[in-house]
Specification:
With 368 residues, this protein is α/β, with parallel strands linked by helices. The chain has 2 domains: 7-207, Uncharacterised protein PF07075, DUF1343 (Rossmann fold, 3-Layer(aba) Sandwich); 222-354, Aspartate Aminotransferase, domain 1. The chain is built from 10 helices and 12 strands. Helix 4 packs across helix 5. Residues 226-352 form the Peptidoglycan beta-N-acetylmuramidase NamZ C-terminal domain. Residues 22-222 form the Peptidoglycan beta-N-acetylmuramidase NamZ N-terminal domain. InterPro entries: NamZ (IPR008302), NamZ_C (IPR048503), NamZ_N (IPR048502).
């Protein structure tokens, strides 16, 4: 087994005495291979961390989607924890300035989908750092679903939001450090990236030798992350994306679906995936407490599997089979990065042609 060294491990392996007050942006994924969390690890290495900043879901990861944990104190280090979720621009600048930190460090694992919010917390805080004159350092981590492939359309800047700030494809194929370098062309922060050592772009997370820590409450496994760039799109329609089950984003369905759903999806012959007819009852979220019929995605070949095309195909089949019940919501435009997917679905047109063929990631790549 190969073992990758993350930016955090590389930084803490050379202890020193820091002279500037550091704000650490992190969550449960910011750990060393022995599962020591970044905050005490950096303090032990002589990095003078004085404040912790938490993204969506919070420092401890207890909040569900769309929430944070509020301002609190870290019970391990005693440091103050400031909640950045839903704070942008001048409001975020004021929060950072009030902490008295002189530099910001980011150590959070991403999952490889543009609409996952952690890298946009990084983006927004890079903007604050630029305006406040603070150095910003990214302790890089591998892309869990590999960095060899990008898929899906690039974000239209008119649809920029907290589920997509910069012009990246849906599955971007980049690490947080690479996104920071790409975004910094416009932001202009004083940026450093402590690169991952020993990672190859084609590797999924289970080849890194690193421990998997669920990045958020509904991202329990690498299997979840693999399908998420596609089935995450179901959050923009009136179907269940599997929240409130033990297989979020692998289970999808709707109260109006029937046995034709799985059969129609399998008839498409999508590469690297099969669909099993199933029933489930979400315990929370969309259709909570309602018996839902749908499918479980079984990825049979993750190298061949196109998550974005698969997610669009799921939406296409739902719209084709159940036109009187299926409905899109405005949030779909933000997830997709333009109105084109929603417009195709609402007009009854096949949207699969909106997916460009998968290709290599674009940008200033830090890893071969």
């Amino acid at each position: 087994m190969n073992r990758v060294r993350t930016g955090l491990e590389r930084l803490t392996s050379t202890p020193g005495t820091g002279r500037v007050r550091v704000g650490l942006i992190t969550n449960p994924t910011g750990v060393l291979p022995d599962l020591t969390h970044a905050a005490p690890a950096l303090l032990a290495a002589g990095v003078p961390v004085t404040t912790l900043f938490s993204p969506e879901h919070g420092l401890r990861g207890t909040a569900q989607a769309g929430g944070g944990e509020g301002d609190t104190a870290d019970p391990v280090t005693g440091l103050p924890v400031l909640d950045t979720y839903r704070r942008t621009g001048g409001d975020l600048d004021a929060l950072v300035a009030s902490s008295g930190v002189e530099a910001l460090v980011f150590d959070v694992c991403d999952v490889g989908a543009r609409f996952y919010t952690y890298v946009w917390t990084m983006y927004d805080l890079m903007g604050s750092a630029a305006r406040l004159g603070l150095r910003f350092t990214v302790l890089d981590r591998p892309n869990p679903i590999g960095g060899a492939v990008a898929e899906g359309p690039v974000l239209d800047p008119a649809y920029a939001s907290f589920v997509g700030r910069a012009a990246l494809p849906v599955r971007h194929g980049l690490t947080p450090g690479e996104i920071a370098v790409f975004a910094n062309r416009a932001i202009g922060a004083e940026l450093d990236v402590v690169c991952v050592e020993g990672w190859r772009r084609q590797w999924h997370f289970d080849r890194t030798g690193l421990p998997w820590v669920l990045p958020s409450a509904n991202m329990p496994t690498l299997d979840t992350a693999l399908v998420y760039p596609g089935t995450g799109l179901l959050e923009g329609v009136n179907a269940a994306e599997g929240r409130g089950t033990t297989r979020p984003f692998e289970l999808v369905g709707a109260p109006y679906a029937d046995g034709r759903f799985a059969a129609a999806l399998n008839d498409l012959g999508l590469p690297g995936v099969r669909f099993r007819d199933t029933w489930f009852t979400p315990t929370f979220g969309r259709h909570a407490g309602v018996v839902v019929r749908g499918v479980q995605l079984h990825v049979t070949d993750r190298e061949a599997f196109p998550p974005v095309l698969t997610g669009v195909s799921v939406l296409h089949v739902l719209r084709s089979l159940y036109p009187g019940d299926f409905a899109c919501e405005p949030f779909l435009d933000l997830l997709w990065g333009s109105a084109s997917l929603r417009e195709h679905l609402e007009a009854g047109r096949d949207p699969r042609g909106l997916c460009p063929p998968p290709g290599p990631p674009q940008g200033e790549l830090l890893y071969g």
